[in-house]
Predict the 3D structure of the following.
Amino acid sequence: MRKLILFLAIITGIVSQTRAQEIPRIVLSDSAKISLLTNAPWDEAVYSLFGHTSMRVNDPARGVDLAFNFGLFNMSKSNFIFLFMKGETDYMVAPIPYSAYYQEYKERGVGIIEQEFNLTQEEKQNIFNALLVNCLPENREYRYNYFYDNCSTRPRDIFEKYINGKIEYAPTNTEQTYRDLVIECTSTRQWFRFGINMVIGADADKVITDRQKDFLPRYLMNAYEGATVVGDSIPRNLVMSTTTLLDPKPFSKDFPVTPLYAGIILLIITLLISYISYKKQVPALGKVFDTILFLVAGIAGCIIFFLMFFSVHPCTNPNWNIVWLNPLQLIVALLFFVKSLTKYLSYYHFINFVALLAFLLAWCLIPQQLEIAFIPYILSIMIRSGMNVLQQKKLNKKAEYSLPKAK
């Protein structure tokens, strides 16, 4: 039902946009209100963990009550996944009837907080006109950027442009990085946090300004609380009132096995298989395990490599996780059962073992915040590389002993 409502709401919004050039300009009445809608995080989709921001224009005298949503995207678009990975996703703004907007989030159990702004009639009209212009077919799409240009920063920029005076925001008084804020938002979903920390790199660990924190809806909402408008006669509070329209439902329980516990289990399995395959002389068991381990690590390495060198996503290059998750592991995984290459693979495993050992020893010196949960996974790969080197040495010695001695 909620999907149907959302679909109808989007269609209504798109139709409204298409007709925006045809309808006469709407002059807001004195009773019109413009507000910011901040949606609470929702735990059923990774992108919803960060919340959402929309703008509302409500004028009962003119029969206008619209939520301008800057976060619409079309997943059925050709090559959507590839474009999303590359960071070339186009989002869209649309005016959705507020009743449909409210019903959709009510059914999801997503909280909504409304901040009504203290604006002059001229400011209200200019902001409303700007929103309608943004919704025109030639303007409604924009290149989405998670940290720099999203559903939260767009409303902020419109307010700043059309308010007479300068907005002085409430400060956070806290030094934070992009990674700090991402971790804060994903604290209830350990595997999401693990994955995001894997793909964002060293630039995410630089201290950011309060303005840069506005990419998160909750931080923008907090910045407006206590904000004032100066430079236009008498300073005034920007927010007139704050109302909770919907209370959020509690988050569901996270997956019980955390990345750290899963990593420790993997490490224990790695040690057991290493012992059996080496001491009990069952090398086939080690090869099967290595194929799976290095295959998964190689695929993860390909994703990191792609994000570093081919995507336009911010804060993905440099990424020191490429040391222990690199695309070469995918090739290595496919060559484990090629006997003629066993000797050459041992060279790779020796280099890999040394590189991972150095990576762990220099852990605190690496200019990137790394998760402790990475360590058992790194150890598992390092141990298997080390065991492959020992296995090859063992085979070489066995071959030497089997050679006939000269008389």
